[in-house]
Specification:
- By secondary structure, this protein is α/β, with parallel strands linked by helices.
- It has three domains: 163 residues, Sandwich (Immunoglobulin-like), CATH 2.60.40; 229 residues, 3-Layer(aba) Sandwich (Rossmann fold); 34 residues, no CATH class.
- Helix content is 37%, strand content 27%.
- The chain is built from eleven helices and 21 strands.
- The chain is elongated.
- The chain starts with a strand and ends with a helix.
Amino acid sequence: MKNLYLTNRFFGLCGILVVAFATSFFVPLIFQLAQVALALSFALVALDFSLLFGKQNLAIARRKLPKIFSLSDANPVVLILTNQSRQRLFFKIIDEIPFQFQERNFLLHASVNPGETQEISYELRPLQRGAYVFNRINLFATTLLGLAERRISIPAEAQVPVYPSILQMKQYEYRAFDRLSNQQGIKRLRRIGHSYEFEQIKNYVPGDDHRSINWKASSRRADLMVNQYEDERAQQVYCIIDKSRAMRMPFDGLSLMDYAVNTSLAVSNIALKKYDRAGLITFSDKMGATLKADNKATQLSKILLTLYNESDRPKEANYELLYQATRKLITGGRSLLLLFTNFESSYALDRVMPILRRINNNHLLVVIFFENTEIRDFVNQEATTLEGIYRQTVAQKFMAEKSAMVNKLKQFGIQAILTEPQALSMNTINKYLELKSRGLI
């Protein structure tokens, strides 16, 4: 009986019978009709119970999950439901999804014919990295009569790890290497000069740069030949992630650090596809993970696993430790360092500026920090009160201070990106492609 639930339709029928018997005190003719309705109701309830509980295995269900979930992406989950009875059943499905989603009203509906198998799909968007545990699948089955429900609880425990966004990594890889169409976001940059490695000599075709003509090869072949160049390879690209409390600020449910994690994976993948060497450094009040730059086939997997295990810390970042780590870890010449951090005031930037300048003297440093989109949206609203005008003035001053920080970094020769969190991956990849195209790394 613990799997038996009475529906609203059953209690509605009981209410009608109570009203009929109560009315029969004043209209005796209704009493016989009420008795007939009561007997018919008992028969219908008994029939409904027999249809629901007459067979032990009324329905079965299983869950189909991907091997891993991608952080901040919509990940598909499929429930495969089979009706093993001889009548059409209506199901309410409560899948016990991981607690991290904090979904307290999760409910799916399905109508399945006898012997039919149906797939019900839904999507989950995880906002934290880590292990996500799924539990039981609960089915609440009703017949066409709908007077009672039978609960069918199916064990379906499963664990899925949530990794940095592999879907975004593939998406930006396609955009960066697609030569047939202009994908929105990724910029095509003109190559400047010949600061590239020689690749081959090929036949001249209209449109080739006449300055690349190889006159010696042309005289031997009695036809115009041109030198073809390619981007320099095996350059070191390090993603450096600040894990301090400044990166714990959430936007659209995702922390700034997780935005940086997703972007680091996407940039590292593109760097490896361009035959550069990708590495990783994380730091806060103490050093975190360090992964030396390499371009082996297993490097992207190492970066993915390292990012999966990283978590933020509630203390301030120690940039002195970062400088020491760059001196010891990064060897073999000038490298590109993509530093993901956040400065909420000019004072915070001025405090670490001497260290950033020293790092930039040894390598090409790109400081990437975030625009507060909520403050920007607040500034764009119309102020209707004196207090609102004061608040908007302070907000505008805050935004102007962010822009001034970008100019201050550029004055000292440090590359800087001020970006919305949602556009972080696109802007960072564009900066990498720009610096590579200009031959600065």
